[in-house]
Amino acid sequence: MEGAVGDQLVGALVGTALAKGARRLEKSVGMVENAEDDAIHQVRVSCRRLRSDLKLFRKLLAGDWATELRADLAALAQACGEARDLEVIAALVRETATSEDNQDHVDTILTKLTLGLERAAARSAEVVLGESTKDLLTTIDAVAAAPDLNAKAEKPSSEVLPQLLQSATEKFTQAADKLKPWTSDDDWHEVRLLAKRVRYAADTSAAVLGDEARTTAAHAATYQELLGQHQDHCAAADALTAMAVDAAAQDDPELSYTLGRLTERHRAARRPLREQFLSLYHRP
Predict the structure, then answer these.
(1) Residue in 194, 229, 219 with CA at minimum distance from that of residue 281
(2) Which of 176, 213, 217, 210 shows the shortest CA–CA distance to 196?
(3) What are the φ and ψ backbone dihedral angles of 149, each rounded to 5 degrees?
(4) 273 touches 226 (CB < 8 A)
(5) Residue 38, Cβ neighbours under 10 Å: how many?
(6) Is the dihedral of CA 48, 53, 58, 62 positive or negative?
(7) Fewer CB within a 10 Å sphere, N or C end of the chain?
(8) φ, ψ of residue 150 in degrees (nearest 5)
(9) How many CB atoms lie under 10 A from the CB of residue 58?
(10) Residue 205's Cα: distance from chain center in Å?
(11) DSSP string, 31-88
(12) How does pLDDT run across 182-197, given as a tens digit for each residue?
């Protein structure tokens, strides 16, 4: 089966990948309409998967349509970002708060995060269910049915996909090779994004490249999971630091102290995750 797909022109896979991505995004929008759990996050993931496929196939695409489509998908994902971040941060605060923390302060922090989450989720839902998203879905469906491709799309999938996947993998390894335990949070976050692109690229290529691509996807997923946990702690530390500044400005040093304790807890949580990633990444 994989061999037969490999004989297919790579251009045919572009439309297939976009159509699959469109269905995934449509399903997640439906989840928002039905107020289902994790719906906003699924919209964000769907946008990222589509953007990754467009990036993977960019050398096969003609014209500027893909750049515009990626920008529209990025805007939709960004509209869903604040709600998802606040949801994760609130969950982490609940997990990491201890009996040594002032419970009233913890409740105050969680209340503020929850109120922010509710408002952000309402704003996200308004965008997701708006006319711009309907127009975007219509555009993706039309593009998937007849994508504008260049001459490179006339080559066999088995010839082109290994090159595309290798390119994504090389960008990841070039960045990951530079990581050290003391490297900045932003650099670690960038490697997480590159691992995600490798995973999505390998997933898309698996029907043609078989077990090798599936193994690559599995490794990338492991890296992505670790670095995702790392990024969550970074986001929590940043958000709690901002809340501590506000508490200090409102002359509430005790609340600011509790926020500082929680912040340091999340900053400390980065180290074992970094060590675990480096150990896995450099393992022979």
Answers:
(1) 219
(2) 217
(3) -120, 165
(4) yes
(5) 12
(6) negative
(7) C
(8) -105, -175
(9) 13
(10) 19
(11) HHHTT-TTHHHHHHHHHHHHHHHHHHTGGGB-SSHHHHHHHHHHHHHHHTHHHHHHHH
(12) 999 999 999 999 999 9
d(CA 212, CA 122): 42
Nearest to 255, CA basis, from 107, 115, 92: 107
At 1, the pLDDT band (50, 70, 90 cuts) reads very low
Tokens of 276: 């675990």
Rounded to 5 degrees, φ, ψ at 68 are -65, -40
Q: Which tokens in the block code for residue 212?
A: 């090798």
- For residue 63, what pLDDT band results from cuts at 50, 70 and 90? confident
- Cα 88 to Cα 165: distance, rounded to the nearest angstrom: 31
Look over the chain and give the mean of its residue pLDDT values, rounded to a whole number: 93
Cβ atoms within 10 Å of 220's Cβ, excluding its own? 23
Question: Which two structure tokens, joined as six digits, stand for 94?
Answer: 């609940």
pLDDT for 244 beyond 80: yes
pLDDT (mean) for 69-89 = 94
